[in-house]
Protein: Oxidoreductase
Organism: Agrobacterium genomosp. 2 str. CFBP 5494
Amino acid sequence: MTRTRRRRGGVEIIDAETNLTYEYTADIIFLNASTLNSTWVLMNSATDVWEGGLGSSSGELGHNVMDHHFRMGATGQVEGFEDFYFKGRRPAGFYIPRFRNTGDDKRKYLRGFGYQGSASRSRWEREIAELNIGADYKEALTEPGGWTIGMTAFGEMLPYHENRVKLDHEKKDKWGLPVLSMNVEMKQNELDMREDMVNDAVEMFEAVGIKNVKPSRGSYAPGMGIHEMGTARMGRDPKTSVLNGNNQVWDAQNVFVTDGACMTSASRVNPSLTYMALTARAADFAVSELKKGNL
């Protein structure tokens, strides 16, 4: 591969059991190792051509890390459904789509969040703390407890250029390859959003008659949402992005990245279906281009 011949001929792998190295050639390469690992592979590839690795010509490789921040919401108790357990019109799981910053209701932060909720009846574990004994204790174990309900918000993290991963050449893995060093944090936009995540949850629960409503404020660090995105984003300009709109690496047109690394923004919903759709679209495009002789 050279800077003028932007095509990758194959991949080199290390057998984890034998430590032997193998090379596989291919006309088309799809890299989907999961967000951070895909970028790690790119950073360790074609370093003889690009100092920062394959896809680094724009300076964006490794930047704009995103995740969904969460663990903010509310809990409470629901009365009036003591005759229901697994069936019937009872408290159940629910989803509340984003409603902030969708119209004229502008907040002091950008974007928004959605809620994921669930409900259940307390079970026999509730009695353990009481250390009861005797017939009354055994009888209590046969009866379900009251209904509890809770919801937590999943909020969008903006793509900040300074939120990034890079290779740590001072720290190597068992195969002698540099590991990723991460510098990722929430900014004020996310911190402001998290206040609404709690306050809105409490307000909605109280409005529908939930009893003993309590705010939930859990700690969060980037990565806990397990929805890592960014670091090899798509774009229209090779000077400001790693991939084009077809998920091709600008620096090597026969290499495609269609996992979370390609994302330009995080939204507030689970991203897996989006990855699947992007992969299906890119695969169809790759086959078409291969048949035309363009790859």
